[in-house]
Write a structure and sequence with these properties.
Layout (H helix, E strand, L loop, with lengths): L6 H5 L2 H6 L7 H21 L4 E4 L4 H6 L13 E5 L6 H9 L8 E4 L4 E4 L10 E8 L2 E6 L3
Parallel strand pairs: 3-5
Antiparallel strand pairs: 1-2, 2-4, 3-4, 5-6
Bound molecules: zinc ion (ZN).
Length: 147
Amino acid sequence: MGAYFSLAELTHSQMAVRYGLDNSPPESVLANLDRLMATLDYIRESIGVPIIITSGYRSPRVNRLVGGAQHSAHMDGRAADFIAPRFGSLLRLAQHVRGLSTVRYDQLIYEGDWLHLSIPRAGCEPRQEVLTAVFTDGHAWYSQGLP
Ligand SMILES: [Zn+2]
């Protein structure tokens, strides 16, 4: 269990509530959610202001509803979308997280309105990939690095 984050926060989904769907995580993703919480705790500690999780675990059905990627790490309990308005701009937050040498993220994506951070599968090396999402004509494209 995390120092700052709870399983409830990481599994809450407005979409699930709206559609009356069960978004409780299966046993198989709990270990990933624990690792994810530890990573988010570390980031939270380093910035000193609250982090708001806008999306954590997503059941496959919820992931489809929100238009998530087909193999989204959210369905695996390995990804969270978040903001931290009191820290400053989202870009500043992205730069800060990228600079944390001990955070072993797989992907850090600057999505414009939030950051997406994923951790690697258990036992896998993190890719430490930093991307910027660009939305055009309803499609998401990814460019390397931050804007
Ligand atoms: Zn995401």
